[in-house]
Amino acid sequence: MRLDLLSKKEIIRRYRELEKEKENLEKEKEDLEKELHKYKNSNTPPSANPHLKPAVSKNVVVKSHARGAPVGHTGTTKLREVPDETRHITCNECPMCHSKNINVKNQLHQQQEEMPREIKPLIIDVVRDVCRCDDCNLEFIARDGMTPVQGRFGVNLMVLVLFLKFIVRGVLRKTSSFLDASFALKLAPASVQAIIERAAKAGENEYEDLKVKIKNAKLLYVDETSIRVLGVNWWVWAFRTDTDLLLVIRNSRGSNVLEEILGKYFAGIVVCDCWRAYDFLSNASIQRCWAHLLRKSKELHSKAGLRLHKKLSTFFDQIIAFNRQERTEAQRELKYARLTKKLKKMITYYSRYDDCTTVIKYIDFHADSWFTCIKFANVQPTNNYAEQSIRETVIVRKIIGAFRSEKGTKIYETMASLIASWQYQKKDIKTEFYRMLSANLC
């Protein structure tokens, strides 16, 4: 409607309505931006939010290729094996007209793998000799290395429960239901929990040995993420080497955790993000994570910000190119000095732009720690190793929501650390479970 046909009072009323609607839209926009920031920020890798990424990048050219398995693929068809049972399936009448006049023209052969319809647990009565040594008067009970000294659950059953809990990620109630439906084994959720607690107790010594290995490591990738314990925010810390992973769950994100695990004088190499707690490691050589930095600079949209992001990307490309080849210690020292000098010069230049201030301060606060991966061989410029190792815990966090007791955190950090370390060492998890339980419980 034309404004010149409206009264002054009506125009003022409509203007106020539009102002109110504008305020509501601005508030809604602010709330949506806050929600989006939970998923798109410099501390969250893009891989964590595939729903926010386009299916195919506009700049990527999709090449057509022959469909099917690549050359050298072993395929999925299993070799035929010696059968345990033979079934000959016959037919006595036509399925359409029900005629009995049937001729066998040919036979089809196939192999199937089947499970027994009912798998029931074995009930074993155990009788142990209680002995006394006539020489030293030591009294002891007989052990066979395969039967737990305490409890009513055998090693095989305990391994199955551990697989359901930590490999399949089953919660207690569903694990209990699965055992009942599949094995006619009626276990209450509390009994499943008791089995897991006993297994964690058996792994305590190996977990303590793992702590010593991490403390003496020359190169560590460290990260942390939040988790709820009894309704309070706690933190899962991951300390990773090429062959080991140590998880610890503490009610702190501060440097006291680093002091507890690594000690005051840890002098190895640590790859981490820019969280201020890592400044405690004054004797260590720190490599700050380039993935965090590039995600942060990518959020700049001004002309100066775009140029800054491009220059940082060029630095990262130079790191990758330099580390592709074997280098002498002198070459690494020289390259480190040159790149650090260029970075500081770039910081000075872009500090004049207000919109770049946040990123510049982020870089400048740790200016000498961005090219440690140049100074030392076999050091990654990003903290992806630690972030990858902590993803399993993030999935568990989404499943369970929170730990209901502090004892639960001890159990999880012990078992999850041992399982992940065995995987990095390419060991068979089932074999390691049997070894650990038999050695400590039987």
Concise overview:
The protein has 14 helices and seven strands.
Detailed description of the structure:
Helix content is about 45%, strand content about 10%. The chain is of the alpha/beta class and about 450 residues long. Among the domains are: about 130-200; about 290-375, no CATH class. Strand 3 (about 220-230) and strand 4 (about 230-240) form a beta hairpin. The model has no long low-confidence stretch (mean pLDDT about 90).
**Which oligomeric form is depicted?**
single chain
- First-residue to last-residue Cα separation: 89 Å
Computed over alpha carbons, the radius of gyration is 31 Å
The 3D shape can be described as: extended
Give the tally of β-strands. 7
Class computed from helices, strands and strand pairing: alpha/beta
* DSSP strand content: 5-15%
Uncertain stretches of 5 or more adjacent residues: none
Helical amount: 40-55%
The order of strands across the largest sheet is 5-4-3-6-7
